[in-house]
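User: quick one, fold this
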Amino acid sequence: MRFDVITLFPNFFTTPLNSGLLGKAFDKNIAQVNLVNPRDYTTDKYQKVDDESYGGGVGMVLKPEPIFAAVESLPTLSQREVILLTPQGERMEQGLFRELARDYEQLILICGHYEGIDERVQYLVTREVSLGDFVLTGGEIPALALINGVVRLLPGTVGKAESLKCESFESGLLDYPHYTRPANFRGWKVPEVLLSGHHAEITKWRYQQQIQRTKSRRPDLLKDDDN
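Assistant:
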């Protein structure tokens, strides 16, 4: 999969994209990221990417010309989505990551800044996505979250693909508790069932834990599942 990130701050992505499983996935060419700075597509000597808002108001607005030029400079793969990271978009969730990982070859991510982006950029955009109901200084953090969430679902990124099926939200439930050695840490003991070697009972216990955790922490997920 190809990611093209339109950002005024390409250096923001350098360390995260080279770390952990994400870095290994890019090293193995499971996915690739191309960072594009819209300043490189300006036509004035000051490389101006923003201007005052028509009608007045506080803050600067990103100009459409550099963003259009940056996107139009990219190759076009057959299955692509042009995503604007904005608080007004649909909220990121596991189902969105699954869809993007499954159905697309190319994701173009436009990172907003300042007071906003010229509305005419919407003619480029095919989807708007939000990290949540809050406002950040720019779209880079949401873009990183989306890249991470999608890449880890691509075949070959996670060593054991089976482990992806048991995670929070994959079955509409939160994940079950995990334990490792030592069996007794400061008086807190690992549940006996996990030490029993009885796989059917372990599976049953884990499912019960998922139900309990979801009821106590995210009951809205159970309501959604019932609809």
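User: anything notable?
Assistant: Residues 9 and 37 are 7 Å apart (CA to CA).
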